[in-house]
Amino acid sequence: MLLSLTNTPRDYAWGSDSLLADLEGRTPTGAPEAEVWFGDHPGDPADLAGGGTLDQVTGGTLPYLLKLLAAGRPLSIQVHPTIEQARDGWARESALASDDPRRNYRDDNHKPELLVALSERFESLSGLRPVSDTLSLLEALDDSDGVRQLRARLSAEGDALRDVIAWVLGGKARAEVEEIIAAVVAASTRADAGEWGTTLRAIAGVARTYPGDPGVVVALLMNHVVLKRGEGVFLRAGLLHAYLSGLGVEIMAASDNVLRGGLTPKRIDVPELLSILDTAPGEVPVLRGEGEGPITSYPVPVPDFALERVVVDGAPISLQISGPTMVLATAGEVAVASNAGNEIALQVGTVAFADSAEGSLTVSGVGEVFIAGPGR
After folding, report:
1. Which key words tag this protein in UniProt (predicted)?
2. Could you say which DSSP state residue 314 is in?
3. Which of 248, 55, 298, 326 is nearest to 336 (CA)?
4. CA 118 from centroid of its chain's CA atoms
5. CA-CA distance, 297 to 94, in Å (whole number)?
C-alpha cells in the first residue's frame, strides 16, 4: 500500500508567515503557519488523496508523529514526561474531560522528539546550562537586586536550578523578574558582552516578544543552541526546551503531553512541571548525522521512531523498510515507487506513506527526502 498524504498547516500564533510557503513554492497566506502534522494522532490526522484520513487506514496505531515545524517567534518553554510519568498522570486525571483546562496529560505516552533543521539557521533553547556557566553569564549584567538574588539562589546548596525555576514561576518574584529582564536587554546592546553576546541577544529577543514573562528568566538558564541546515537535536523526556526560530523536520513519539514553563498565555502548572523536570545540567549535543553517501541517519535512544535524510541525485535509491514508513519531500523533484509498481510524484511538503507489507521503496529524481519509520 502506497498513499499520498497532505495536511493543512496549524495556525498557532508562533508560526512563521513565510517559511512553509517558501519551502513549498507558494504564495504566503498572510496567517501564521506553524506545523504540518503527518500522522494518525487524533488531534489532526493527515489527509489522504481522494478523501479520508490516515487514522482510518492505520487505526491510530502509528508509534510516531512526523511534522514540518516553522517557528516565526519563540514557542513556549516546555518539557515532556517519561512514559511512566505519562501513565501515572493520565490515570490521575481520568475523571477530567478531555477539554478540561485543568488537564495536563492528553494521553498515556511519552514524547521524546528529534528536530533536524531545514533552514540555514535554526535557533533553540535546549536543556539547562551548567550553573557555573550561568554565573559567568550573569557577570555581563548590570547589578540590581533581582540579579543579586538570582546569583545567590544559583550559588546555594542543593538543587539550585529547580529552586530558581520554582521561585521565578511561583508568582512572588515579579519585581525581581522585571529587573533581571531589564538587565539582560541592556547587556545585549553592549559591544563588551563578550562570549555571552549571542546568547544575551537571543534572550533579549525573547523578552521583546514576551515582555515581563517569567519564562524569560527560565530561558536565561538554558543552553542557546544554533543548528545549521541538516543538523539536529534530540530532546529526551524531562529536558526543558523551546524552539526560537527556523524551519525543521520534527519527529516524536505519538503523544501530545506538554508541561509548560513560560513564554505562553496557556496554563502553567508549576508543581506538575517541577515533578517531571530533569534539572541535571549539561550541553545538549548537536547531531550532525551519520553515514557516508546519499543517506544520513540520526540515531536516537528510543524505539518509537527513526529518521534518515536522503539526497537523490538522478540514480534511484532503494530503501528497505521494516514498518509503516513516511517519505517527506523537502527539496527538488522526487518520486516514490512501491514493490507493486505504484508510484507517487511528491510535491515538496507532502508525504508518501507505505505500510510494512511493502518491504522496500525506491526513491528517484533529484532532490531531498526524509524517511520516517519505527525505531530499529
Report:
1. Isomerase
2. S
3. 326
4. 13
5. 39
Task: Return the C-alpha cell found at 184.
Answer: 539582560
Q: Give me the residue spans of the domains in the chain.
A: 130-220, 295-373
Within 39-147, strands assigned E span 47-48, 64-71, 78-79, 113-117, 121-128
Taking CB atoms within 8 Å and a gap of at least 24, the contacts of 195-198 are 196/136, 196/137, 196/140, 198/224, 198/226
Contact 116, 300 (CB under 8 A): no
Sign of the CA dihedral with 356 first, then 358, 360, and 364 last: negative
**Rg of the chain in Å (alpha carbons):** 22
pLDDT at 376 over 80: no
Taking the C-alpha atoms of residue 277 and residue 164, their distance in angstroms, rounded to an integer, is 13
Which of 73, 129, 236, 260 is catalytic? The answer is 260
Residues 6+ apart with CB under 8 A from 197: 188
Interhelix angle 145-154/160-169, rounded to 10 degrees, is 150
Residues 6+ apart with CB under 8 A from 59: 40
pLDDT of residue 193: 78
Contacts of 143 (CB under 8 A, 6+ apart): none
pLDDT band at 339 (very low <50, low <70, confident <90, very high): confident
Task: Give the pLDDT confidence score for residue 231 in this predicted structure.
Answer: 98
Rounded distance between C-alpha atoms, residue 240 and residue 169, angstroms: 14
Q: State how far the alpha carbon of 306 is from the alpha carbons of 65, 104, 114, 117, 131, in Å.
A: 11, 27, 9, 16, 33
CA 181 to chain centre: 25
pTM of the model: 0.95
Is 376 annotated in the active site?
no
366, β-bridge pairs:
313, 333
Describe the crossing of helices 197-209 and 174-188 by its angle, rounded to 10 degrees.
130
CATH architecture label of 295-373: Sandwich (2.60)
Sequence-ordered alpha helix ranges (H) in the chain: 19-24, 55-58, 83-92, 131-138, 145-154, 160-169, 174-188, 197-209, 215-220, 270-276
